[in-house]
Amino acid sequence: MKRVPKFVGLAIHRSRVHKLPILARAAGFSSALSLFPALIFVTALFFRSSLGRSLIEHLSTALAEVAPANVHELLTAFLAGGSACSNYLIAMTGFAAFWFAQDVNYTLIEGFRLTYELPERDGWWKDFALSSMLVFLTVVPFGVASIFLVFTSQIRDRLLPFFGIEGSITGLITLSGWGVAFATIVLIIATLYYVAPNRKQHWRLVFPGALIATALWFLSTSLFAWYVQHLARYTDLYGSASTVIVLLIWVYIANLVILVGCEYNAVRELRRGARG
Fold first, then answer.
1. If DSSP states are collapsed to H, E and C, what string results for 39-85?
2. Residue 188 sits in which domain range?
3. I need a labelling partner for 86 at 20 to 30 A (CA). Which of 41, 105, 126, 225 fits?
């Protein structure tokens, strides 16, 4: 644990050497392009069932917890606007979300290659196929966690008034929900670290970086949300475009910490090799 701050500092330095902030900007732009059609697709696909509506309500609540306020308002508007879409529009938004999401993974794969200083794969189509597969590998745990959180919310709403012990149990259920969210993000990032690099990986070696990246993401998101709310004046400078600018910065930060987490794993391996 004593070496963690030092390794994080080295990882940040190496990320600049490998020019990972440039790739994070590219991945952030694709993330923003994927996010809007994905919200419309999810809303249109699941709004017709009661469980689907519960998932959408939970997603909106979760966005309120992690996203800056004006970004949350924008994303919630897209959630509300996707409830009455034709099947053709559902298919189109689903394809758009998938295409830009795989582009995010494609960019991250390049970042992981630079992190470990690996050669390129033979043929661009291998990275394309891998980035497409990673879309599904990362969506599945997110969906399972969302369903779990919906059911825990329903259990809380139905049982707590009956037992009359709302205070302590509500806090425990809320804490467990945040624990599930944290573990889900760790699992998604660890999957990226394990599958994406063009080298043999071990789960025990990728989880430390995933933990660091998730912790940095929660911390940086909270600090950025506070900065936007209390210090920044994006609306005064950019007017109605300020929300999009804040969104782009937010997803840029998310992709950058993922790349820094991979650098953290690379630093750990180098230090372990040096000691060995």
1. HHHHHHHHCCCHHHHHHHHHHHHHHHHHCCHHHHHHHHHHHHHCCCC
2. 4-275
3. 105
